[in-house]
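By convention, each integer encodes one residue's backbone shape. The lines below illustrate.
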Amino acid sequence: MDQLVKDIIGKLDAPEVLNSQFTQLLNSISGIRTISNLGNQQLVEKEFIESVMQTIIEHLETEEVSLYLIEEKALNCVARLNWNQFIDKESSINNKINSHSMSSGIIGETVTNREVIHIRNCKTSTEDLTEYKINGRDIGSLICAPIIANNSLLGVVELSHPDLNHFDLWQEHSIIIYAELIGLLLNNNRLMSDMHNIVDARTEELRHAFEESEKLRKRYEEMSIIDPLTKIHNRRYFFTEVGAGLARAQRYSQPFSLMLMDLDYFKEVNDQYGHECGDKALVAVSKILGQFTRKGDTLARIGGEEFVLALPETDNNGAIKLAERIRKTIEEHQWECNGITMEINISIGLSSLEDCDDKEIMEDNIQVSDILRKADLALYFVKQHGRNGVKSFSGMP
């Protein structure tokens, strides 16, 4: 920047050029400020390049500016903008990227030497300008400056004009400063982009890991409360869940009943037809019981062929009616396995809050195990009196 000011001041030897040179200085400084501010705008690389190209055209009095960047060991012309395109607000981004040799021509020489090249008269220059003639570009004067950041070459910025001797020292010095600034911001932009990509990738990994852990947690939780064969709740879940329902029933003086069920002679079913048929029967029984289970009820398998159904807001009479319907449905069901007809029956014992002592109810001392024990006694009564029946604890002699 200091050198730029000295160059311009050194040329202020005639009053008539004072305004022009001062305007050039302000213009160049304004462009530097504009590019510097791009670093605060969190632009993606293409947006950053677009803004840089427009700033150079607007502030350095060039007819055309081109930007070459090294990408995957190739030097590509990623953007080009001329004055007319700038006026028409056309994009500078080169969608059909042209690769350039990194070792030949003016661009290649700039890359190799990492120094600015200023050709004032392209018509008489001995430099290799073949590429410009091939591409039909009418070049009178030319400046190429390397873009370097942290001692790494990122690319080349090129100013061109059809007039001979168009560019002065202020533009040469200016584009050097612009190139250094572009390299710094472009490198920072890429570092930030890489950091964001790393953060995004890590965030995605963490999100995936969290989802997997949630799946595992739910799976383990499910395994701890779900019977793997019948897919209904198990004994562990039953005592946890039903305990809360029983407490609510006591607190609000609501009816509560419990149904303990056991398949009759199920050992003989396994022995005669095999465990495969026995398992199929257990699954089918679970589905039948599920059909009689309301929202709020709790159905669980608590033993090999033993099931329990907790019935909140159901009194003893309602539970007996439901139990009889279940017993009859299972009795009348067509039990078949591998083409063999089987006979499956069920015995049901019932108990409810009505069977408990009034003092226990008032003091909230009743546990699920207390009601379950009474239901078990009723079930034992059914087993001792022919099976395939229903009995409530209150109806026992």
